[in-house]
Amino acid sequence: MNTHVNDPAALIEADRAHVWHHLVQHKPFETIDPQIIVEGKGMRVWDLNGKEHLDAVSGGVWTVNVGYGRTEIADAVRDQLVKMCYFAGAKGTIPGATFAERLIGKMPGLDRVYYANSGSEANEKAFKMVRQISAKHYGGKKSKILYRDRDYHGTTIACLSAGGQKERNVQYGPFAPGFIEVPHCLEYQSTDRGEGYAERAVKAIEDVILREGADEIGALCLEPITAGGGIIVPPKGYWEGVQELCKKYDILLHIDEVVCGLGRTGTWFGYQQFGVQPDIVTMAKGVASGYAAISCCVTTNRVFDMFKDDTDKLGYFRDISTFGGCTAGPTAALVNMEIIENEKLCENSTKMGERFQNNLLELMDKHKCIGEVRGMGLFQGAELVLDRETREPMDEKRVMGVVADCLQQGVIIGASNRSMPGFNNTLLFAPALIATESDVDEITAAVDAALTRVMA
């Protein structure tokens, strides 16, 4: 029972005294109140003081793809939990089987769904699969996992070991061995991104493969579009080159769709924008739009069949995700998928994404501090710089000043911060896929006003 529902002051004090918030320094809460969000509807949320905000980041971390207040999802979850709330993943459930079939129908060439709870956990499963395949089929060879600078794959020690955002890793080592970084396709401050740009980026990955030895490398793990690392869309030809490298050196291609999945870029999955065929795909966030906890590690039958060996008593995938057995996740995910289909939200993401990007490009004409606009669908970024010619990054404090100004206006936006030393300079936008023209215009108007004030 909520004993503080009619006592905002008591609720704030309960939060201040007992809640350990994510990604927040709590020292300021000694003198200011933590913000408490109490209600959401569509694209809007209201805090404890009744202030309305337009949410341009889908729940703060790019999750609520279909918007707030979807009673059809909540009702379906309630009904399922009453009928059968949970059984360990060693057994099947109706929503688990049904959603797996529907999901695979959106992912030609992939076959199997392993359920878990978060993006970090889904990536852990993938890493464990690669390591067990190494032990079972390669005598311990092909155990190394390549990851890309600026990409992010989660918060656990293994995921941080595969994390390309250096400031996120500070103070959490030592890390797991066998994770090897490859350079990003974005040459940070280079103005030379013309002919041969994609080929240079692919060759940089191949150079690492040759240095480490292809017979030691089991998988390459990449985001289809780098998310928190700056909304970086790879150049044309990059993904084709990556696919060829994986085929050439027999390396599993693991694509992390935790952010881009379920319509964010305008297709069901980000990798489908580039015509590649992964071996492993991980996802979370928008799978159920935050209405229930769920993540999936999806594989081909080729990967799955490497664990079908009843002559080896330890040869199966000996892993469990306790709450991967909760039926709320796949139930919510089924209705979430139906909403995306019925309301044509992938198409809306493409259409509104084009408008959003054009709006940001107009802001770029007005504000010289915008060095580049990047993105796809309702996943857009504006990189702030001190000088467009040199691409010298704007300092992080001023970037976060733009975010704070927008919040004061009642618009919640994001920014890369405390992730990549010296390069935390990109404003991040990922509104719900239900966004309208007026929503997109309101967000960009707030950014316009904030840039005018902060950069004055």
TrEMBL record:
PROSITE patterns for the chain: AA_TRANSFER_CLASS_3
InterPro entries: Aminotrans_3 (IPR005814), Aminotrans_3_PPA_site (IPR049704), PyrdxlP-dep_Trfase (IPR015424), PyrdxlP-dep_Trfase_major (IPR015421), PyrdxlP-dep_Trfase_small (IPR015422)
A Pfam family the protein falls into: Aminotran_3
Keywords: Aminotransferase, Pyridoxal phosphate, Transferase
UniProt cofactor(s): pyridoxal 5'-phosphate
A Gene Ontology molecular function term of the record: transaminase activity
Keyword Chloroplast: no
Taxonomic superkingdom: Bacteria
Family: Belongs to the class-III pyridoxal-phosphate-dependent aminotransferase family.
Protein name per its UniProtKB record: Aminotransferase class III-fold pyridoxal phosphate-dependent enzyme
